[in-house]
Amino acid sequence: MTDLTQLGKDAKKSAHTLALMSTEQKNSLLKQMALTIKKNQGALLEANQKDLAQAEENGINETMLDRLRLTPERIHAMAEEMNKVAQLDDPIGKVDQMWTNADGLLIGKKRVPLGVIGIIYESRPNVTTDAASLAFKSGNAVILRGGKEAFSSNQLLVQLLQQTLVSAGQSPYAIQFVDDTSHETAEQLMKLTDYLDVLIPRGGANLIRRVKEQATVPIIETGTGNNHVYIDKDAQLSMGVEIIVNAKASRPSVCNAAETLLIHSEIAPFFLPVIEKELVEHGVSLRADARAMDYLETATLAEESDWDTEYLDYILAVKVVDSLDDAITHINQHNTKHSEAIVTDSYQASQRFLNEVDAAAVYVNASTRFTDGAVFGFGAEIGISTQKLHARGPMGLNELTSTKYVIYGDGQIR
């Protein structure tokens, strides 16, 4: 079993050094890491093939294999996202506010790193580079514990990042990898209170639930996306079709994909047959309520559990609603607070949807697939927070910082 206590001690020491590192040093090292990843593309593809072969033997379906798969294009994109993080403004040391109080004290609120971040995640190797680059740029040491499906890919990625640090005369312990994928080790990491400042789980509902139940370190909940697209009675048909097809079928295995289509009863008779045709052509099967079944040819009858399911597959739940109120009520009852969208030409409906739907990202006339740190301009993301403290939505550099008050006086006493 991995000695997590030693990893924690090493990370704590490294975090102190990282917090004092200049922006120029961090940016230079991130660019070197990105170059190292590009130069080792062949080895990464070979390691990933081992993971894919093992996953296929274990019966992993194709949509989940897609999350795991590395290609030359994806490796290049991973490296480029590290370069983008290097180009972003460094939040560390920034003073958000400064004022003079009644006692003549000059008080400032300054951005500082969180310290040591632990991340438990599943089968996407790009999470390794995204998390490492964001943590490093924001002055945090990171301990990465990936899932067994991507073990070889993740292990090699971290080795390459550590090699880059050592070659530059820096400690490799800023980015560490837990090389034991057992549940026992994961549970130990969840309780590493002496060394972890925060733990971020990134994965499916079971992982998130287990971490919430067992962790004694502070956590930031990320992830599960039971997302909805509501097509209002004032929607444009062509827009509605394009948005739901993209939200469901462009990459169904990711957390910002749509899982439920809600459609207003006034337009259901002529919208649903068109939508069904397009979705079926993209390989999507439908699970519909009794009212929607009247207008669909290929759907099966939905069960109550379908409204709460994150399929991560080519499956979409469909429900007919009678009003915007009904749509909002259904969403707030069944969603996971991730991403929700309305398609409408009504300004009043759009504003009510924005104001009343409880989610980290709420869209008007756009696909839920845009909920992504890189797309939002953060370079990459450490995850998408679905809670309200300490961060919400895609988490970039600022979300990996805390603040301290710095106070200047000239002899004041109280």
UniProtKB/TrEMBL annotation:
One of its GO terms (cellular component) is cytoplasm. Its main location: cytoplasm. Belongs to the gamma-glutamyl phosphate reductase family. The gene is proA. One of its GO terms (biological process) is L-proline biosynthetic process. It is found in: Cytoplasm. It comes from Enterococcus durans. Keywords: Amino-acid biosynthesis, Cytoplasm, NADP, Oxidoreductase, Proline biosynthesis. It is an enzyme of class 1 (oxidoreductase). The keyword Amino-acid biosynthesis applies. PROSITE patterns: PROA. It catalyses: L-glutamate 5-semialdehyde + phosphate + NADP(+) = L-glutamyl 5-phosphate + NADPH + H(+). This is Gamma-glutamyl phosphate reductase. Pathway: Amino-acid biosynthesis; L-proline biosynthesis; L-glutamate 5-semialdehyde from L-glutamate: step 2/2. Catalyzes the NADPH-dependent reduction of L-glutamate 5-phosphate into L-glutamate 5-semialdehyde and phosphate. The product spontaneously undergoes cyclization to form 1-pyrroline-5-carboxylate. InterPro entries: Ald_DH/histidinol_DH, Ald_DH_C, Ald_DH_N, Aldehyde_DH_dom, G-glutamylP_reductase_CS, Glu-5-SA_DH, GPR_dom.
